[in-house]
Q: What sequence folds into this?
């Protein structure tokens, strides 16, 4: 089963996704996509690490998430955090809308074909205005499409606002 947990920055989505993973009572494989580029991000990553159970297996993979998914045993719960950073990493690495869209399609295909419970965390980026910056507009477009694609294959979708999860699918 695929579950998408989407919300704004600091909305409580990570905490809620971790709660879902714990409730599955299986080994959790946590795929971390963040590449810390400054001291503040390093601190945020450390806080996330400290909040996770020590028995969880953590795989740090900023780009090849679909490939990693294929290596995980079927009796594990997979938590991917976060889709937004993954798309950002791809966009900065691939530098093209078509390349990133292809990679998103690969991820959706893998998610649709595996038998694990998968929880995907993502930021909602479509509630703000349109940026005057071209890269920001491309990122927002790709994230919006990515969220729609993951949402379409997910059995459950939650939005989290002010720490309150709301099931929308």
A:
């Amino acid at each position: 089963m695929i579950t998408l947990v989407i919300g704004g920055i600091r909305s409580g989505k990570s905490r809620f996704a971790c709660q879902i993973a714990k409730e599955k009572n299986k080994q959790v494989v946590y795929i971390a996509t963040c590449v810390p580029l400054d001291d503040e991000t390093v601190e945020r990553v450390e806080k996330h690490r400290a909040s996770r159970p020590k028995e969880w297996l953590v795989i740090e993979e900023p780009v090849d998430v679909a490939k990693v998914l294929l290596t995980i045993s079927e009796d594990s719960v997979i938590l991917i955090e976060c889709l937004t950073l993954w798309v950002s990493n791809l966009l900065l690495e691939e530098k093209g809308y078509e390349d990133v869209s292809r990679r998103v399609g690969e991820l959706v295909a893998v998610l649709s074909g595996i038998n694990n419970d998968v929880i995907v965390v993502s930021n909602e980026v479509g509630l703000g205005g349109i940026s005057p910056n071209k890269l920001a507009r491309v990122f927002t477009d790709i994230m919006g499409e990515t969220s729609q694609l993951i949402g379409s294959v997910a059995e459950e979708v939650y939005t989290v606002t002010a720490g309150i999860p709301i099931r929308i699918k």
